[in-house]
Structure formats: C-alpha cells, structure tokens
C-alpha cells in the first residue's frame, strides 16, 4: 500500500527550473531512498512535498489524500515529519524546547512526555543536556536533536535529508541504525542520501535523481548491482538506457 | 534638592519608563518574529488611547459613573482596538511585503502610521486639538515624609510591571511563546513543525500592540490629555529604547525604556539648562551610547532573544 505518491511534479525556484516531471511512490512501512548527486534536486523534492516550495505542476498524495497546494503546517499535520538537510535545530532554544517543537501539534502532555522519554532512551546524551542551547552543541549532537525532533510527532512518514552530511563514519553508522529502528517501529521513511552503499544497505527500494529527473528506480539490490546508477549518481548526466537491470524511466 | 523631591522625580521617571518599556517591548517582539520595524506602532498606541477616550465619552454620556466600570471599559477598549489594529497592520501591510528589503517595510509602516494619525485628526470629533483625558484612578495617596505617593501612579506601575511579567511568561513558558521564538529563529523550520506561521505573526502583533495600548492609557492618565500626534514621539522613543537595549531582546527593551526615561528626567531637572531640552539631551545621549555600543547595551545573548 502506498503512503506517499509524487505524480509528475515540476518545481522551480524564481528562475531555475529544478524538478522536471518527477514521479515516485513510497510504500507504507518501507525505507525508500532517493539518491542523486549534488544539485540534482533531492532537497527541492522534499521542499515540494512539504509545501515550502510548492510544485508548479503535478500532485502529491499522502495516504490517498491530495496535499498539493496545502500550507506547510497543514501538510505536516497529516503525519509527515522531516529531518532537514543541515539539521536546522533552533540554535537559541534548549534541547528540550527543540524536541517539544517536534511535537508541536500534539496537545496531550502525557503523549508528549512519552515521546520525549523515547527520544531520551534513543539518545541518552540528549537527556544529559536537555537544558543546553542547541546552537552550542557539537554537530553530532545537533544531529541527534534533529533526529529526535523528527521522532517527537510519531509521524507516519519521516523524511530524512542527508543525515550523514558532515558526520564521522561512526556517527553515520549510528544514525543509520537509528533510522532503521524508527522504521522497524512502523514509520515509513523517505531517505535522501549521497552515501550510496550505506543507504542501499538499509533501504528497501530507491530512486535515482539526476538533473531533476528520475533516471532509475528499483529495489535496493537492483540499484546496487547497476553500474549505470553509479554513473548517474556521480553526476555524469542521465545514463543511457539499458534493456536489462532496474527499470528506468524513459 | 530634598529627598522627597528626588523621590517625586524618580516616581515620574518610573511612570515614563514603564510607558516607554511597554512600547519598546512591542518593537522588539515584531522585530524578533519578522525582522522588521513596525513604524506605525506609536500611532497604533495613539489610536488605542483615543479608543479608550471614546469608550469613556460614550459611557459617561450614557450615564455610567462607576469609576471601576469606566476604567475597565477604557483599558479594554484600548487593548481591543490596538490588538486589532496591530493584527490588521501585520496582515495587510507587513505580511504582503514580506521578503522585500527591510527598508521597504519600514517605509510602508511609516506611511500606514501617517494614515492612522491623520485619520485620528480628521475623524475623531475635535481630533485636531489635544483632548482632555479623564482621571480614572484615585489621585489621593500616602504622604511619606513630604513625598506624596499617589495611588494612581502605584496602580499604573504595578499593572505595567505585571503586564510585562505576563508577556515574559508567555514568551518563555507557553506553547505560543515557543512557537513565537521558533518562528523568530527559523521561519521555515518552524513551519515544518506544524506551526501556522501567519497565525503566529498575527498573534504576536496583536500581543505587542495590546501591551502598547496600556502605554497609551498610562500616557493619557499621566498627562491628562491625548493628542492625535502623540504616537509619533512615543514611537520614536519606544524604537530608540528597543534599539538601545538591543533589538529583539525583551529585557533590553525594558532596560532601554527605563534608561530613556531616566535620561529625560535627568535632562529636565539635574542639568543647568531649561527642561525643554530634556529630549535633546536624552536623544543625544542615546546617539552617544549607540556609537559606543552599536548593537545595543545588552548584546544578543542567546537565551533572551525573542
Ligand atoms: N532557494 C533556491 N533558489 C534558487 N535555486 C535553488 C534554490 N535552492 C536550490 N536551488 C537550485 O536547485 C537545484 C537543486 O538543488 P537541491 O538543493 O534540490 O539539490 P540537492 O539534490 O538537494 O543537492 P545536495 O545533494 O547538494 O543537497 C540546484 O541547482 C540549486 O542551485
Ligand atoms: Mg540537498
């Protein structure tokens, strides 16, 4: 059953056209990844889904409901959370305040406390530093705040934009393990990454974006086996078609 | 100068300081949440004072004489009108030019203030003349060694302090305050938390303007008159106080407000020239202080910025 469906989306910033007819689906309960080199439009797709940069054309469906054109806070209220590129913690708020903002739409104080406890169980370091201003934390700690904040609303769909950016290999491994665990607890994950191998190791399915177009898709193992994917990934332009291997969009 | 005279000046300065602080807190809230200067803020305050006066005029014409009822009506109508005006300014003047350079926002709000001011002058009955503002509070008081501590001053000071403390609690403790601070720090990320950005902006403007309504009422009660142009100087002083304290900083606005009042009071009584020079002196010192501390007296300390 599909959780998220992106249909023929075109998105542009003031002058630059970025997404060109992007379609993809994220099945409920899976980790679906989106690979692509710098500037291929991955973050733009996340911004389109969140309504931060609404698509010029196309539709976005979530759990069958059409989200196109809704304001960001309404889209989020449907059960989507995002761990944004570059963490985006609120620097002058404490760790706890950052986490509480993740559950901003939850009114029940008991539920908020439960989610808070769960985040602290996942990241004991945050529990020790709950009153520290997030902006004064190390990059790795800020990543924990950002991931924890994304968990706080107990979303149906969690979108993660390059969680490994700027982290040491050990930290990256831990974060991937956390993302996998979140998924095992029933959260659908849409994971944007450049780190092909680690991403495909935990993802069920994936898409490859190049210059604003989906150029390849398939199961994780299909993508892993595909040389062309690497070519696309490393930015040498759209790969030429090949009859076998993963399905590729025309 | 005797101790009782000094006490009197301190009291006067405190009243002015409270008034300026209340106005400055508004400037700082608006700047915090949207990074803009709402230059019609002073005129919104004036409109609030006139709304209070109108409520009094209507009620007394209708035969209401109970001072408590009149006072409540004056304060509530001032607050209601300024809160509404603040939200209207945000919705129809500030938000539409969001994304434009700050200077443009300053210009449109400056013009909106002029429109508001002229409307008061043209449409309020007899609005081109200073209007007598009724004394709504008991003017009796205690005599402490020659110093007459008036009840009305005490009541105004205490309620002003409570309002500021309440605002501080809202900003630092409530869910709304958390949303305001989140929007102030990172609007986009705040929206992805499920915060309705426009609503937060409107509520912040209503809140900051409602606070200033109280300043308008204090102004009326203190000088016993209101004037269509009263918002101009009050606005500039409130803005100066907010900048002096460090724009965006709640405590800074309060400190700035009281500091400015202290400078005015010193300029009026302690210096060898006529008290008419008090504003020249106060603004002169502010300019000097700004040269020494360009970002305001209280630097942008993380936890306190809105
Ligand atoms: N706010 C913006 N205004 C104009 N152009 C933008 C804006 N944001 C992104 N772009 C452009 O859109 C294109 C896609 O950017 P996007 O951030 O979506 O790429 P990405 O795949 O996330 O890259 P990265 O892996 O480096 O994060 C780039 O060419 C970028 O310059
Ligand atoms: Mg990106």
Please give a structural write-up.
The complex is a heterodimer of chains A (250) and B (306). Chain A contains ten helices and ten strands. Chain A is α/β, with parallel strands linked by helices and 250 residues long. The two termini of chain A are 25 Å apart. Helices cover 36% and strands 26% of the residues of chain A. In chain A, the strands form two sheets. Chain A has a six-stranded mixed sheet, sandwiched between helices. In chain A, strands 2-1-4-5 form a four-stranded antiparallel sheet, covered by helices on one side. Chain A is globular. In chain B, the strands form two sheets. A two-stranded antiparallel ribbon of chain B has the order 1-4. Chain B has a two-stranded antiparallel ribbon with strand order 2-3. Chain B starts with a helix and ends in a 14-residue tail after the last helix. Chain B has helices at residues 3-34, 41-61, 67-94, 102-123, 151-173, 175-185, 187-192, 197-223, 230-245, 250-269, 278-292; strands at 131-132, 141-144, 147-150, 225-226. The mean pLDDT of chain B is 89. With 306 residues, chain B is mainly α. The radius of gyration of chain B is 19 Å and the shape is globular. Chain B has one domain (3-228). Chain B has eleven helices and four strands. Classes of the chains: A alpha/beta (250), B mainly alpha (306). The A-B interface holds A 50, 52, 71-73, 76-77, 81-82, 84, 88, 90-93, 97, 100-102, 104-105, 133, 135-136, 149, 153 and B 175, 178-179, 181-182, 185-186, 188-197, 302-303, 305. The complex binds adenosine-5'-triphosphate and magnesium ion. Magnesium ion (MG) is lined by residues 42-43, 85, 161-162 of chain A. Residues 13, 16, 18, 36, 38-44, 85, 194 of chain A line the site of adenosine-5'-triphosphate.
